[in-house]
Each structure stands twice: as C-alpha cells, then as structure tokens.
Design brief:
about 350 residues; Rossmann fold; 6-stranded parallel β-sheet; 6-stranded mixed β-sheet; 12 strands; alpha/beta; 13 helices
Length: about 350
Amino acid sequence: MPASGHDVTQSDIAAAAGVSRSLVSLALSGSPKVAEDTRAHITQVAAALGYRINTAASALARQRSSTIGLVLPNLRNAFFEQVSRSLDDAAAAQGLTVFVTVGAQDQERLHRAINSLLGVRVLGLILVSPWLTDQELVALGDEAPTCLIGRRTPGGKVDAVHIDEQLAAEQIVSHLDAQGVDSLGYVAPRIGDDASRVARERALARAAHKVGLTLTTEEASTDDAGAAIRRLLSVGTPQMGLIAHNDMLAIDAVAVLRELGSGGAGRTPLVSYDNTYLARRAEFALTSLDQPDPHMAHEAVRLLVERSAALARTPDNPPAPREVCTEGHLVIRASSTV
C-alpha cells in the first residue's frame, strides 16, 4: 500500500477494481448514475488502497499550474492545427503554455492521452471535438477544469465553445439553393472521427427541408472521401450540390469532380466547413464556412482559467457549466459559383 493516500490515483483504483477511470470518478463523486453495488465495490477498493480525496489541495495545485492540456482528435485536419495555434496565442496572452496530445479515434489511446495530462496536474483540459460520451465528459469535468471546442456541454462541470450549427447550415443551404441545385449531398466523416458530425448533419437536414431540398449523406473513409463522393454523384440529381464536412474532404471532392469533368463552371457546386488555408489556395478556391477560431480559442481559455480560479476559491461549490455559441460566416469562392 502507498505511504500516502494522496499518492493513489483514480487510475490505480480503476485498474484494481476492473472498471474504467471515468466510472471511478463518477462513483467517488456520488453520481446517481452509478449502481449502488458498483459504487460499493469501487469505494471498498479505494479504501483498501488508502485513497483519500483532497479537493481543495487538488484545486489549488491546478490553479497554480501554468500549463493547459490540449487534446486533438488527429493531425490530419488542418482546422485542428489552426485551432491549436489560436489556443497557443490565447494562452500566451495570459502567461500560460499549451501542451498538446493527440487522442486519435482509438478510445484506449484517447484515455491514455487524457490520463497523461491529468498526471502532470495541468491547470485544465481543452478537448477539440472529442468523441467521448456525455457521461465520460462529465466524469472528466469532476477531475479537472474542462472545456470543449466544437461540441455542446454535456452538463456537470464542463464548459463549451462552438459555432451555431443551425445558422451555419442555413447559410450554406441558402447559398446552394440560389445556385439552382435541386438536391444536396453531404460528405461526412465517420461517426467516431468527429464529434460535430451528428449535430452538423441534423442542422443541414433541417435547413434543406426548410427550402424544399432533400439531403443525402455518404460517410467517407478515414483516408479518402473519393468513394463516398462518387456514390453521392451516382444517386443524386444532375443539379446536386455537394457539402463537405471540412476542407480536407472537400479537396477529395475537387479531385473527383475534375476527374469526372463536372467541376468546371460550377456545374456541381461545392461548399465546405472551416475555411482553412487550404480553402484559400487558388487551385481549390473552396467556398467554406469560416469558424472564428481566434475568438473561440480566447473564450475557451477564459472559461478554463475562470473555472480553475473558482475551484481554488470554493472547491466544494463549482460554477455551473457555461456555453459560448459563436457565429460562423460563409466565404464564397469559385467552387460553388456558376
């Protein structure tokens, strides 16, 4: 047994009890979501290991830290790099540094990345489009100040910053409708690749229905969206407009449209999200929904710092979750115009 209960971590308890760390956090915080027999088992294991919670000391240690832990889904999407750079700028303005880890889509690797950050007592965590359940995110918020970018708050002690997906969808659909399309195709990432997929698809479907257009979704593989785009074009109408979930998928669409000879003169209008440097390149000239990442980064850092300070003052009275919803705007380029 460790000499001090404070040396025992929730990961140690999880390993000994044969459960997930998130479940341990929920059980020890008294969450009603945990069955009583499971809570009793976890509590017994924690007691046997000598685990003792010192909420005030933990909160103070985190508040004194000058490092923010950032978890990105992957490094393929240029938007994630753009957000990371903006977060680094926002943190530096407050004398803080950002430590970046990549969680990937593998849940075990994602949890290891988060555990590594919690192990060094970062001031708090910022997760960009994390594919974790609401329950897991709430449990994470019990362990450290947490803010999400690109996803709504699940409640608990977790803050969030995201764009207004419905407003963004309406801008995109209205623009394509004005180009004379009679149906829409949405090229989407796999469900586990981007947490914004579900909200974005629903918003696009509502916006399409409002103007009398149908929306067909095809899921792209991790490495190439070409097959999904070809499927959309094969089942769609001759005047279909394409919507890509992000600029990376849109570039695959550009290649397919050029190959099929349907990308010239706006014959198949194409719009994407994120407005990264790729969208601005002349060879792509993508019409893309700009997400104000500098503002989103500033707000995420602000929320994290304020929550950390509040927990240091009154660790037993955490503030309610806060959510910042920002507006994106559509930047029109040659990919969508006749």
